[in-house]
Amino acid sequence: MRSLGIIAALPTEAKCLYSKKLKVGRPVEIQKGLFLCLSGMGHERAIIAANKLLALRVDGVISWGVAGAIEPTINAGDLILASAIIKQDSRYTTTSQWHDWVFEYLQQSSANLINGDIVSSKEACASTADKKKLFDATGALAVDMESAAIAEIAMKNNLDFLVLRAIADNAHTHIPEAVLNHTNYLGQPAIFNFTLSCLLKTTQIREILILAKAYRKGLASLSRIAPGLKNQHFFYSDDSLP
Fold it and tell me: Which of 26, 50, 151, 234 has the lowest tally of Cβ within 10 angstroms?
């Protein structure tokens, strides 16, 4: 059996696959030949996590978690199995046969599954205007902050590569200042500053509630598909790929 590494930026994303607490940058074998690494948000942290998995001599890597929609018709809870990752002028194509096996399996589930590109950004894409600008420039369906980093390591080291992301905020959803400025790289709020920001600008409270509801939908979609994919080793086996 080929070994496989999965990178999740946030503890809530990782928990869909593994219930125990993880330490950032320390991969855990959650079942035979299947490693999970919590990276924290961002390009550089994803590179570190990918290199940790590389040291374990995995054959393939998965970028797993949530993403923000930039295409206007995509909704919270939708699943995107990326055909490619876009970063500025670069485009990293996922492993086609592996992608097709997983896509075929997920089509049989109740998930609203969409195939298309994801753009990866080093900065959070927070406003509706920024999302529209990114969509117009790339035609991608969604945006995340880690997949391009994982793709770069995969391409440099001849690893198979897959991206599976659930939508956690819509193209018309604004991410409020309290979330942007007062949560850490694991998505955890600094309670005092977070609360103070909300009190000083109370319109954020409604935005946060909308965002939290959408985020829960994204995690629920990941949680529904995780057991079956784990059971099938994410369809990453010696007889499913060349």
Answer: 26
Structural domain boundaries, residue 137 = 4-174+213-235
Is residue 101 a part of any domain in this protein?
Answer: yes
pLDDT digits (tens, 9 = 90+) for 35-69: 999 999 999 999 999 999 999 999 999 999 999 99
Asked whether residue 153 is domain-assigned, the answer is: yes
Helix H, strand E, coil C: the string for the chain is: CCCEEEEECCHHHHHCCCCCCCCCCCCEEEECCEEEEECCCCHHHHHHHHHHHHHCCCCEEEEEEEEEECCCCCCCCCEEEEEEEEECCEEEECCHHHHHHHHHHHHCCCCCEEEEEEEECCCCCCCHHHHHHHHHHHCCCEEECCHHHHHHHHHHCCCEEEEEEEEEECCCCCCCHHHHHCECCCCCECHHHHHHHHHHCCHHHHHHHHHHHHHHHHHHHHHHHHHHHHHCHHHCCCCCCC
Total tally of structural domains belonging to the chain: 1
Per the domain annotation, does 148 fall within a domain? yes
**Is the distance from CB of 87 to CB of 120 less than 8 angstroms?**
yes
Look up the CATH number of the domain holding residue 160: 3.40.50.1580
Among residues 77, 67, 70, the alpha carbon closest in space to that of 171 is found at 70
Query: Is residue 179 predicted with pLDDT exceeding 80?
Result: yes
